[in-house]
Amino acid sequence: MAQLLAPDGTASRAGLYNALSGSALRYVSGYLDGTTAVVNLSGSLRPGGVCDNPRIETQLAQTAVAATGASQAAIYIDGNALADVLSLR
Question: Is the whole model's pTM more than 0.90, yes or no?
Answer without folding.
Answer: no
